[in-house]
Amino acid sequence: MVRAFSLPIEPNWRGLVDCIMRRGEPERVYHIELFLDPEMQEAVCREFDLLSSLDADDPAFPLRRQIAIQRFMGYDYVVCGPDAPDIAFRRAITGDTADLERAGGRTFMDEHEGPITNWQEFEAFPWPDPATATFHAMEWYQEHLPEDMCVIAGLTGHFCEWLTWLMGYETLCYALYDQRDLVQAIADRILHYFEVTLERQLAYDRVQAVWGSDDMGYRSATLISPKDMRAFVLPGHKRLAQMTHEVGLPYLLHSCGNLREIMDDLVDDVGIDAKHSFEDTIESVVDFVIAYGDRASALGGIDVDFLCRADESQVRQRVRDTLEACKNGGGYCLGTGNSVANYIPLRNYLAMLDEGRRFRV
Asked: Which residues pair with 332 in a beta bridge?
């Protein structure tokens, strides 16, 4: 069996949180990812025989498997939230062309028209009841997660995403002019759902951070105007950040797209503690650290397109350069610019992690 890493890592969730909160120089590089695609997880399990000691018939097998993967890769946490709500978004499916092919294809949201385009559809929509949401995985982790690991609660706060998915992006753009009261009503229902489910998650003491995930932009701008973002999206994140801070935990934000016009709002008004998702064609993580590193931490930033196209030596060099630029006083965790997608070469992903282990703070 091929050896994955040159140095071992012992999980230390307290060190991870201290690094995110910029509480002095960390003793090592901390690693973080929004998620690993299931196909990449399966490839890691296969390549390094991670599951031989686990009982596949154990009802908790998927959760024990997740812990095994996270610990092996050097992560100090699991990401967990309520069991997925059954929401009637409109989706399209196409084939997957990645080497680690997704059996069911890739799913995309209908950008033209969602399930709510008028008041009648709003009233008829089967809104999920957050008071009855179940937390089976969270409850299991509360009792069984190793003490050196924590839960990052999430992924939550899909305010902009759910607006565009429920109305359809095209419909939303029109509604911002002629049905703003309907947009506000939908935004209020979304906020209620995430407020209640986050309050319930914060009751679990294994939760040590909250991860909001809400793609708000594309390459050159926010999905809707900065003014409308401030009206319909940012208040939701501000409320979740407030709830998170009230119990002394950091609020992390994942958001793809160009957020330049609202970044000061996110840092100074919403109160995010860390920003995740960086794309070289928009803003490098190093540039973000230069501009905001004294006010918010940076997570990830090794560009996904770069990871797909580079060779191993280039990946290692970029990791070293990024860590040198971002390391001072904490406030940076190493990871991809977005997530560990199934089209990233496994060898490059492993090289990124290994170089982080080798780097001496």
From this structure: 298
Residue tagged 């008829």 (tokens): 124
List all residues 6 or more positions away from 271 whose beta carbon is below 8 Å from its beta carbon: 238, 241, 242, 245, 251
Structure tokens at 241: 């950040």
Work out the pLDDT band at 2, boundaries 50, 70, 90: low
With b meaning 16 or more CB within 10 Å and e meaning fewer, what string describes 236-263? bbbbbbebbeeeebbbbbbbbbbbeebb
CB under 8 Å to 81, separation ≥6 — which residues? 135, 138, 153, 154, 155, 156, 197, 201
The candidate with the shortest Cα–Cα distance to 332, out of 7, 71, 25, is 25
pLDDT tens, position by position, 49-100: 999 999 999 999 999 999 999 999 999 999 999 998 778 788 888 888 888 8
DSSP label at residue 93: E
- Identify the helix (H) or strand (E) that includes residue 212: strand 207-213
How much is the pTM?
0.95
CA-based radius of gyration for the chain = 20
SS3 283: strand
Total residues found in the chain within this entry: 361
H/E stretch holding 29 reads none
Short-list 357, 294, 350, 292, CA closest to 323 = 357
**Coil, strand or helix: which one is 217?**
strand
Write out the two tokens for 265. Answer: 């709002």
Peptide bond into 334 cis (omega under 30): no
Output the DSSP codes for 110-127.
Answer: -SS--S-SSHHHHHHS--
Contact status, residue 333 vs residue 9, Cβ threshold 8 Å: no
At 199, which amino acid appears? Answer: E
CB burial of 180-207 (b: ≥16 within 10 Å; e: otherwise) equals eebbeebbebbbebbbbbbebbbebebb
Lookup result for tokens 């000061």: 264
Contact 48, 98 (CB under 8 A): no
